[in-house]
Every structure is written in structure tokens, then in C-alpha cells.
């Protein structure tokens, strides 16, 4: 559970504040909060609600908080309690609250929401999630810290270590809140307690605890429950002994000696006790006995309290996501191996005290039910996810909801299954990951509102509305609303499915929940659930004839259907296979005996999809298996090379591996080492050089092939970050691939071990692999189009100009990038490497051997953080030594273009009219820097590329774009134009001109259509960076349930027509078409404007291009550009005469 949380800790949350402040007087003194710069919220950060005891008392209850002499500046927003963390520093006195108050003033007190952070009881802090969206619904929100890990949850039930210190902190925070929230405008009689992950378990434990009685009035649980086996360790003292022994302690059977061992350890030593194993939550809450006069927090196991009903009944909103188990996706390879070799390591935590059957029997049942007694491998990923979803989260959440409802609590149960466009594992198709609902409701450091689609925002608005309704009115919907969400009735186990649309359902995940009942409950259980389960069995049995597919569960393997029916194999379930109707995709009914009710054997009968269409292709390395989805066979993660390691890791790639048997090509999230600030918590792997092949399910042979080079400023990204299914639908085979990025791919020292351009060498190796193997997939190796977007376009053009890539492709498409952009090649890669090394403390950087030694000894985590989070255009392609046999770039691209010494290929290239919107979100910072030090905002490598002195260029630029005025929000159009031209469009237009001069058929375009879902649409500034790529890749849906307009669909079809025509016949339009798009003629610089209509024009943005020619080109330039400039002059002269004649 720590996996997703640790990523959050890697980024210090820096909250924007404006000048307005608000002073509030509380019991401790006056506290001052500040208004957020862009949100209608006052934030009070880091207010102490208690004092942590120290020394040998550090595991006891917290002490009273300090008082303030003057005004307490509540601005410290990243206070952490002692824990295992990467970058943020913890401190001992960490018990603080953060209060978020709506700016809106009203006389009536406001409802209050208190959020308990998650983190597996081991990591985390109050401000992990920022609740601005709820606050802006006129709710005061409070977050807080509590002690975590061994510091918060060591339980010895002894005088100095009574246990549950973290829960006692939570109770003290609630008491502080109850006493002080009125001063902030909150209603102390209207407090909702919420939590996500382990925070949800904590919240429910407090609901069941008499120690927290009357401190809150409603409760919201997100993806967690106190009933889960990981929420309470019933054998906490034994566990403390185990950990102590593991760390070298003796005399652990003596409780006083054990207490002495723990109380004598420092915080670093305490933290080091805990394994950094992402699955294991080590120190968790316990049943405490009130040692040393401490108030008892948890006097019995949660299940016992729930069943006897001896607790305060409060309205409850609780639920889960449909793929909670994705929290264990990054560790799947290790865990799958362990599940095969020693499955008990991956039973639910504290399994034996909770289960009612023997461990060995449980393992046998689980392996049969989820994995059909086969090996747990990548092809089992759906079942693997279901297993962890159910065993760690869903079963316990549903069981808790049922018990509360049996105790007459108003319970609102939901299943959240919407997958936001920003979810990193969206492409897996497995469902909504752990805590997705919490991440959609609240902000966090990975939040990118600009990247959210209209569907994302629609679901987010619905969630926020239902949650705030519950906070304010105790139910998520009004009874008068359609799809009214009723409280849970255990007779039908009704719940709400929250997806793009709402749907009321009954009996969640019936087979899977019934299965876990058999493991976790006594067979003679007599409560209402028994009746419910009998009903479920009948419900399932009567419904099976209607089922033609299993509820999203894939089989562990995909055996041939006939083999499954007829073979004499010794598969444990063979005797349970029964005949079924011969559907095209093949179904098998499986009956598994799971329990006995009143002497009657009851079996779970369900349907497995077992023969999804596959295609096996034989290539040089062996056989690969692809799978059919939406009429496309997908082959993911096929190795095209092997990344060198150790001191060789910056060299060119090594040959690809071969294999025996069939390679199952299903791993679609393989990522090369890169900074997680951009890609979030996706794990990278060193051996990442893979291709993904998308093959249309059509009968045609020798199909044209499109190869896509991903973008990402040469610093981040992976092949499947964009998948053009829409072009595959046009009967084109599409190949995407990974290449090394950042320092791993583009460190350039021109030495033996670091020759430079490893990422480009990967790209060439991938193209060779495609050339040699694509025929086996049905592709034509003599009809390959290379395309790229953003930095991928720069890379594609570099390969076009490189003799090392000759004959590997036959046409080129460039989208929003060029090799002539100043960011595409660093002319002095060695000097940049020295600069970065010096910034990171290296010495002897002028000695290139020492410099090589410095870089080659760094680990990948160290390499990817060398330039911090400012990754854009850091390590770039470079000039290499001509003596290197595999050198890719030995001459600057502009020199190659001017010489014409390269293979001329048909080229489709262009830009959007507002590429500079890439920097829209950073406008405040950049505008300030432009006013104070404009040189910091010049294009990368400017001094090398410009023919003017820097100060001369700055004077020209400021005069042309900004009229020498201060650059403010009012300058946003000029700001956008400046970055559009300097970073993208000038280099793209100049590149197209030089290709056309060299006789290459060149098709130049300007894309200016703003898609309806573009979140910057209302700025009126134009089409964002790579907007054309987005529209080509995206799934445009129109109609009542769609998020796009018919115009979006029309423009997309037009783009796809032109792009696929170019891929197939080397030109985007037939000459017979209206608005025929002619190849570029440098005498008139003709280009096509792509918007709702097509328009042929001449001389793109001439004034702006002329300025950059003056900055970037020698004044005595003697080629055809001179004639062009003359024509531009005549064009403007005639334009002026025309205007004057009309005025």
C-alpha cells in the first residue's frame, strides 16, 4: 500500500498564496492564514494540535499543544512525522492540522469535513490531498498529521508503549477541531469524518471506538475498511517481537526488555526497522487494554464490535473501485514469481487469525478460483488484479457495509469504475485503480487539470456534488432525483455504480464475495447473510443461462477451447468442465464447490471467456502471441534490442533476446528510466527497449506501415503514451516503441563508454527490427512511413538526415517539431554534461575520463534526478565523433539540409497556430522571468544558433512581440506567439523550405482547429501544441453520451483521410479533390490551413518568420530565401496599398 503513497512524498507541495490574509483567534492564540492565489480558499497550514512526547515516552499519547505569544503564521504546508521518505524531511514535533476555509462569508456556520490521510499506516501526511474542490462548495475542510509506522503503531500494551499512538493522535486532532472550528466559521455539531486507504480504516475504527464518541456526525470511507485484515493486527506483541529479532534484539520474550529495546532507538533507527516492501504494512492498529491508565481506543476486534452493534450509529458513505488491486501492478513480476513458489506470502496480511479454514486449504481454493491452478503469469493480470482487489479491499468494504446496515445505520454503498483519462494504467483496461475516486475529487501534486477530458470533469462534478450533499444533508442524493441512491438494504445488497453514467445494481460481485465468505466465515453462521447467500446461489444459478460473458474476468490462461473440452490433461477443474453453446468467442461453464448450507452442497457456477482470438506470429527471435481487441491484433512489449548495463549503459543497444515457446505480447506499460515527476508512479525498467505492433484484422496483405516516435522533450515518455488506433482502422499497421530518454539516452561525452545519442541509436535499431520483421505481421517492409510528434518529430527528421538510417523508411510525417528547432540538437553536449555534473557536486569535470566515471557509476534513480523536475530539453541529441562507426549525427542538421547531402523522401510537416500554449500554465513564472532576465526565456542553445549578440536579439524580440512593455497577463497573445515561433514554428517552416529546395516533395500545414474538449479553448488563442496529434489519436465520441462535437468528428476524419493517403500513396490528397494540397513551392511558400474548412495560403506568418530569419540567419544568405523575402515585401506593399484604397 505504500507504493502509490511514496511517490506523493517525492514532491514537496508548494501552495500558491496571494497577499490577502485572515486572522483567527483560537484557544492557543491568533493564527494567520492566507488566501490561495487562484482558488477561493483561505489556507491555514501547520497549526499544532498537540505536542509529541519524547524520549522513552515517545509511544504514549500526545501532550497538549503549545500556545502562541504573537500571531502564528500558518504557512508551513509540508510537515511530516518520522517515516520512510525520499526527499521530504520529517520532524519529531509533527502533530499539526491544516484548515481550509471558503472565501465566501456567511452568517450560518459551515459544514466541516475532516480527512484522514492514507499510506498503509506507514507513510503520508495531511496535505497529501488538497481539498480545494470541496472547500469551494462552501465546506470547511481539515487535514492533519498523525504518527505513522512504528512510531504510531507499535503495540506492546505496556506502560511506555500502550499502543495505537497514531489513533490517539487522530482523536486528539478531532478534539482540537471540536473545540476550535467555530472560530474558523465551522459548525462543531456538523462534522463529517472521512479517510482514504488506511485513512478509511482509521475513520471506521474511530466510528467503532467509544474514545471518539461525539467527535463527528457522519463518515465517508474511500477504498478502505476497519474490517480488512490489514487494519488491525490481533497479535501485535508477537509481531513486535518478530521485528525486534529480525533486527538483532535478544530477550524479546521479556516484555520489559522488549519495551526497553524499542524506547531506546532513535527515529532513524526506528524507521530503519521497517522493510521498504511496498506490499507489507508492518505496524498497524491493535486491540489495546488501557495500559498505564491510557484510554482504551480499540477494546475488541472490529468484526466483533460490528456484529454486536455496540457503537454509535452514524450515516455512512462507503465504497471501492473496481480495480483496487492495481496498487500491486508495479510489483507484479516479483509478486507473481512469489505466488508460484510460495503463495502464502501473498495471502491477506494477518490471514491466519482472520480465516476460518486452514491456510493450505485456503491457498488451494484461491489458486483454483482465481488462477485455475495454473502458474500466475503476465497473462493472469486480470485475475491477479481481482485477487488483490477482493482480498485486500472489496470483500471487507462490502462486509463492513452489510454489517452497518444490519445495525440500522443509513449506509450508501458504491462501486467506482470510471477510469479517468489521466490514470497512468488506463491502457490496461482493468478498471479504476486504488483510491481513484479520492484522486478525482481532490487535488494532489500529480493533478493536471489541463489534461482532464470533459468526461473526467463530468464525473468529477458528479462525485463532488454527491459527496457535498452527504456532508451537508446526510445523503448523497435527494429522493426526487432520477437514479436516487437508496440506503443499503441487505436483502438485495443494493449499491450505486459510478461511471460515466450512474447505475443502480444489486449484489455486488456475487461469486467473488461468496467465495471469500467461505474462507472468512464459520460454516454455521446464522445471521441474515446466510439467507442472502442462499438467495445469491439461486440468483446465479437461474441467471447463468442468460450470461454470455463473465463479468470482466479473464482466464488465467487462454487455452484452446477444443483442448479444454476434449483433452485428457490432469487439470484440477477438468471434471467440472461442462458443454456449452458454441459462441464465436468460446465459453466454458465452471462449477466450483465452495460451501455447505444445512447439509446441501452449494457450488458457484460461473462463465469464463477462454478462447479470445489470438494470432501467433513467427519472427527471427521466436514466436509471439498477440490478442484481438476492437478488430485490431495488439502485440505489446516485444524486445527489439537489449539495453546495455553497468559502465556500458550509455552505449548503443545490444542484440535482442530470443526465446523458446511462445512470447505472450501483453505488457503494454514498459517504460525506460525517467523522472517520475512527469509520468507519475509508473515504474520504469532498465531493459525497456521494446516495440508494440498494431495489426488490422483484415484480409489484405503487404499493408503499409506507420512507425511513431513518441515525444517528451527527449526526457520522458514511452511508446504507448499515444496509440493511433484510428489509423490502424484505415488498414495500416502501426508500430510504436521505446527508446532511452533523458541522461540515459542523450548524455554525450564523445568517449568510448559514452559516445552519445544512445536514444537515437535505439530508434535506428528499432527501425531495423521493423524492416526485418514486419512482413511476418502482414506489413510491407518497402512501405514504411516514419512519424513523430514534438521531440519525436525532431528525432524523426534527424534520422531522415542521418546516413545511419538510410533505407529504413520511405516517407516522413512530422507533427509540431523539427530537427531545426534549437532544442533538437545541443551543439556542445560535453559542456552541458560538465555543467550538470558540477551542479550535482562532481569535481574534476574538465577531465573527461573523470567525468565519464562520474556518470557511469550513478544508479538510475540518481541519473533521473540529476536535473530535478526541470526535465524539458535538458539532455539532447548531439554532434558525435566522425570516427564512431555507429555515429548518427556528425554535422548540424541545418548544414546537412543546406548541403542537400541526405536521402530525399516525401515529407508531410506542420505546426499548430498556438504551439506556445505548451507554456500557458507556467505563464506567471515565465512572465516574471522575462521582465527580470529575458535571456532565461530565450530558446535552448540560443547563443550557438543566433547570428546576433544576445542583447541585440533580446532588444529585437521585445520590441517586436511586446512593444518594449512590461509583460503581463494582457500580453498573453504575444507571449504565446513568441513561444510558438521561437520554440516551434520558425524551425518547422525553415526546415520545410530547405527540404523543398532540395527537391523533396514537401506538404506544409498549419493546424488551427481547436477541439471542443481543449481546456484552453476559451482563451481564444488557437490550437495547442500537438493538437493535431491529439485529434488523430483520440477516440472522438459524439451524440448524447459523447464528449465531442460533430465538427470535431468532421475535422478528425479529414485529418485521418489526409494522413492515411500520405502513408499509402505519398501525397495527402488526390489532384482531383477540391482545395488540392500541392507540394511546397519555395517561390510562394504555399501551405494548407487545416480548420473546420481547408484553405490554401502562401507565406506562413511572414512578419514573424522574417524576424526570426534576422535573428537566426546570416545577412548575406544567398539562396532562394532572398527571393522569398523580396516577394514578401511586395506582398506587404500591395496589401498596404489595398488597405489605403479601402479606407
UniProtKB/TrEMBL annotation:
<keyword id="KW-0325">Glycoprotein</keyword>
<feature type="domain" description="Carboxylesterase type B">
    <location>
        <begin position="23"/>
        <end position="514"/>
    </location>
</feature>
<feature type="domain" description="Carboxylesterase type B">
    <location>
        <begin position="614"/>
        <end position="1099"/>
    </location>
</feature>
<keyword id="KW-0732">Signal</keyword>
<dbReference type="InterPro" id="IPR019826">
    <property type="entry name" value="Carboxylesterase_B_AS"/>
</dbReference>
<protein>
    <submittedName>
        <fullName>Esterase FE4</fullName>
    </submittedName>
</protein>
<dbReference type="Pfam" id="PF00135">
    <property type="entry name" value="COesterase"/>
</dbReference>
<dbReference type="GO" id="GO:0052689">
    <property type="term" value="F:carboxylic ester hydrolase activity"/>
</dbReference>
<keyword id="KW-0719">Serine esterase</keyword>
<comment type="similarity">
    <text>Belongs to the type-B carboxylesterase/lipase family.</text>
</comment>
<keyword id="KW-0378">Hydrolase</keyword>
<dbReference type="InterPro" id="IPR029058">
    <property type="entry name" value="AB_hydrolase_fold"/>
</dbReference>
<dbReference type="InterPro" id="IPR002018">
    <property type="entry name" value="CarbesteraseB"/>
</dbReference>
<keyword id="KW-1015">Disulfide bond</keyword>
<feature type="signal peptide">
    <location>
        <begin position="1"/>
        <end position="18"/>
    </location>
</feature>
Amino acid at each position: 500500500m505504500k507504493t502509490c503513497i511514496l511517490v506523493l512524498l517525492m514532491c514537496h507541495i508548494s501552495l500558491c498564496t496571494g497577499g490577502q490574509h485572515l486572522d483567527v483567534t483560537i484557544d492557543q492564540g491568533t493564527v494567520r492564514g492566507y488566501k490561495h492565489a487562484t482558488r477561493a480558499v483561505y489556507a491555514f497550514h501547520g497549526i499544532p494540535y498537540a505536542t509529541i512526547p519524547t524520549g522513552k515516552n515517545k509511544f504514549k499519547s500526545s501532550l497538549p499543544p503549545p500556545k502562541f505569544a504573537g500571531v502564528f503564521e500558518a504557512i508551513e504546508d509540508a510537515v511530516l512525522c518520522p517515516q520512510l521518505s525520499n526527499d521530504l524531511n520529517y520532524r519529531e514535533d509533527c502533530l499539526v492540522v491544516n484548515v481550509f476555509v471558503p472565501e465566501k462569508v456567511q452568517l450560518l456556520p459551515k459544514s466541516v469535513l475532516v480527512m484522514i490521510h492514507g499510506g498503509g499506516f506507514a507513510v503520508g501526511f495531511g496535505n497529501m490531498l488538497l481539498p480545494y474542490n470541496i472547500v469551494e462548495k462552501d465546506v470547511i475542510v481539515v487535514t492533519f498529521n498523525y504518527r505513522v509506522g512504528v512510531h504510531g503503531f507499535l503495540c506492546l500494551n505496556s506502560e511506555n508503549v500502550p499502543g495505537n499512538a497514531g489513533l490517539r493522535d487522530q482523536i486528539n486532532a478531532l478534539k482540537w477541531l471540536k473545540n476550535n472550528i467555530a472560530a474558523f466559521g465551522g459548525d462543531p455539531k456538523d462534522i463529517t469524518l472521512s479517510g482514504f486507504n488506511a485513512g478509511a480504516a482509521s475513520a471506521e475504527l474511530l466510528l467503532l471506538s467509544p474514545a471518539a464518541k461525539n467527535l463527528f456526525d457522519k463518515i465517508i470511507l474511500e477504498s478502505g475498511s476497519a474490517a480488512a485484515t490489514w487494519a488491525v493486527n490481533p497479535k501485535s506483541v508477537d509481531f513486535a517481537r518478530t521485528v525486534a529479532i529480525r533486527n538483532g534484539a535478544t530477550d524479546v520474550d521479556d516484555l520489559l526488555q522488549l519495551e526497553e529495546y524499542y524506547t531506546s532507538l532513535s527515529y532513524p533507527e526506528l524507521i530503519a526497522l521497517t522493510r521498504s516492501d511496498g506490499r507489507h504494512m508492518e505496524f498497524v492498529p491493535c486491540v489495546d487494554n488501557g495500559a498505564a491508565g491510557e484510554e482504551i481506543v480499540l477494546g475488541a476486534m472490529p468484526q466483533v464490535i460490528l456484529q454486536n452493534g455496540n457503537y454509535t450509529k452514524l450515516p455512512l458513505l462507503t465504497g471501492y473501485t473496481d480495480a483496487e488491486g492495481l496498487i500491486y501492478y508495479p510489483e507484479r513480476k516479483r509478486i507473481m514469481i512469489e505466488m508460484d513458489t510460495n503463495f502464502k506470502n501473498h495471502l491477506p496480511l494477518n490471514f491466519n487469525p482472520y480465516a476460518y479454514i486452514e491456510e493450505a486449504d485456503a491457498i488451494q481454493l484461491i489458486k483454483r478460483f482465481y488462477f485455475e491452478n495454473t502458474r500466475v503469469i503476465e497473462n493472469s493480470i486480470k485475475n491477479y488484479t481481482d485477487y488483490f482487489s477482493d482480498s485486500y479491499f472489496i470483500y471487507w468494504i462490502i462486509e463492513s457495509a452489510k454489517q452497518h446496515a444490519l445495525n440500522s445505520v443509513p449506509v450508501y454503498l458504491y462501486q467506482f469504475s470510471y477510469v479517468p483519462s489521466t490514470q497512468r494504467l488506463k491502457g490496461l483496461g482493468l478498471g479504476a485503480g486504488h483510491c481513484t475516486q479520492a484522486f478525482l475529487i481532490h487535488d494532489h501534486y500529480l493533478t493536471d487539470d489541463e489534461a482532464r477530458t470533459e468526461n473526467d470533469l463530468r464525473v468529477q462534478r458528479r462525485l463532488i456534488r454527491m459527496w457535498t450533499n452527504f456532508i451537508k444533508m446526510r445523503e448523497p442524493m435527494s429522493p426526487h432525483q432520477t437514479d436516487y441512491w437508496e440506503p443499503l438494504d441487505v436483502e438485495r445488497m443494493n449499491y450505486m455504480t459510478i461511471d460515466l453514467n450512474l447505475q443502480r445494481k444489486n449484489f455486488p460481485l456475487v461469486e467473488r464475495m461468496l467465495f471469500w465468505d467461505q474462507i472468512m466465515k464459520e460454516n454455521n453462521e446464522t445471521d441474515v447473510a446466510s439467507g442472502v447467500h442462499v438467495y445469491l446461489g439461486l440468483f446465479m444459478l437461474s441467471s447463468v443461462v442468460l450470461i454470455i460473458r463473465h463479468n470482466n474476468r479473464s482466464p488465467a490462461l487462454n487455452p484452446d477451447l477444443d483442448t479444454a473440452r476434449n483433452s485428457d490433461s490432469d487439470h484440477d477443474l477438468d471434471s467440472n468442465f461442462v458443454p456449452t453453446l458454441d459462441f464465436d468467442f468460446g465459453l466454458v461453464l465452471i462449477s466450483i464447490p465452495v460451501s455447505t448450507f444445512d447439509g446441501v452442497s452449494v457450488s458457484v457456477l460461473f462463465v469464463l471467456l477462454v478462447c479470445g482470438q489470438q494470432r501467433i506470429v513467427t519472427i527471427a527471435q521466436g514466436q509471439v502471441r498477440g490478442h484481438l481487441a476492437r478488430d485490431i491484433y495488439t502485440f505489446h512489449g516485444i524486445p527489439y534490442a537489449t539495453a546495455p548495463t553497468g559502465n556500458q549503459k550509455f552505449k548503443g543497444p545490444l542484440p535482442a533476446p530470443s526465446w523458446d515457446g511462445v512470447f505472450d505480447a501483453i505488457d503494454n506499460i514498459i517504460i525506460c528510466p525517467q523522472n517520475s515527476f512527469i509520468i507519475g508512479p509508473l515504474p520504469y525498467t532498465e531493459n525497456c527497449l521494446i516495440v508494440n505492433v498494431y495489426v488490422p484484422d483484415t484480409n489484405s496483405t503487404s499493408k503499409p506501415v506507420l512507425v511513431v516516435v513518441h515525444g517528451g522533450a527527449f526526457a520522458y515518455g514511452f511508446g504507448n503514451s499515444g496509440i493511433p488506433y484510428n489509423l490502424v482502422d484505415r488498414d495500416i499497421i502501426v508500430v510504436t516503441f521505446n527508446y532511452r530518454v533523458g541522461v540515459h539516452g542523450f548524455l554525450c561525452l564523445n568517449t568510448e563508454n559514452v559516445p552519445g545519442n544512445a536514444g537515437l541509436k535505439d530508434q535506428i535499431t528499432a527501425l531495423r527490427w521493423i524492416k526485418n520483421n514486419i512482413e511476418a505481421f502482414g506489413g510491407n517492409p518497402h512501405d514504411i512511413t516514419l512519424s513523430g510528434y514534438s521531440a519525436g518529430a525532431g528525432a524523426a527528421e534527424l534520422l531522415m538526415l542521418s546516413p545511419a538510417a538510410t533505407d529504413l523508411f520511405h516517407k516522413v510525417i512530422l507533427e509540431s517539431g523539427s530537427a531545426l528547432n534549437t532544442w533538437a540538437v545541443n551543439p556542445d553536449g560535453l559542456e552541458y554534461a560538465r555543467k550538470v555534473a558540477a551542479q550535482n557536486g562532481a569535481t574534476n569535470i574538465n577531465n573527461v575520463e573523470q567525468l565519464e566515471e562520474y556518470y557511469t557509476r550513478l544508479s538510475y534513480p540518481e541519473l533521473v534526478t540529476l536535473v530535478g523536475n526541470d526535465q524539458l530539453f535538458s539532455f539532447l541529441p548531439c554532434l558525435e565523433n566522425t570516427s564512431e562507426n555507429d555515429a548518427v549525427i556528425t554535422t548540424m542538421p541545418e548544414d546537412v539540409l543546406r548541403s542537400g547531402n541526405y536521402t530525399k523522401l516525401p515529407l508531410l510537416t506542420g505546426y499548430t497556430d498556438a504551439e506556445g500554449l505548451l507554456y500557458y500554465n507556467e505563464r506567471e513564472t515565465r512572465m516574471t522571468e522575462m521582465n527580470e532576465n529575458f535571456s532565461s526565456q530565450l530558446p535552448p542553445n540560443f547563443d550557438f544558433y543566433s547570428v546576433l549578440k544576445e542583447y541585440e536579439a533580446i532588444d529585437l524580440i521585445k520590441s517586436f512581440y511586446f512593444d518594449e512593455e512590461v509583460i503581463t497577463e494582457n500580453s498573453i497573445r504575444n507571449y504565446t506567439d513568441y513561444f510558438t515561433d521561437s520554440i516551434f514554428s520558425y524551425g518547422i517552416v525553415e526546415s520545410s523550405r530547405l527540404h523543398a529546395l532540395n527537391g523533396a516533395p514537401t506538404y506544409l500545414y498549419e493546424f488551427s482547429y481547436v477541439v471542443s474538449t481543449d481546456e484552453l479553448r476559451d482563451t481564444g488563442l488557437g490550437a495547442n501544441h500537438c493538437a493535431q496529434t491529439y485529434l488523430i489519436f483520440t477516440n472522438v465520441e459524439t451524440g448524447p453520451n459523447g464528449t465531442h462535437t460533430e465538427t470535431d468528428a468532421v475535422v478528425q476524419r479529414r485529418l485521418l483521410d489526409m494522413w492515411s493517403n500520405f502513408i499509402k500513396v505519398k501525397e495527402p490528397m488526390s489532384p482531383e479533390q477540391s482545395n488540392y494540397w500541392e507540394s511546397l513551392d519555395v517561390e510562394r511558400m504555399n501551405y494548407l490551413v487545416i480548420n473546420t474548412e481547408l484553405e490554401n495560403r502562401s507565406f506562413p506568418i511572414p512578419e514573424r518568420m522574417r524576424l526570426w530569419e534576422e535573428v537566426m540567419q546570416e545577412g548575406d544568405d544567398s539562396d532562394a530565401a532572398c527571393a522569398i523575402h523580396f516577394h514578401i515585401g511586395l506582398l506587404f506593399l500591395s496589401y498596404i496599398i489595398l488597405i489605403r484604397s479601402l479606407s
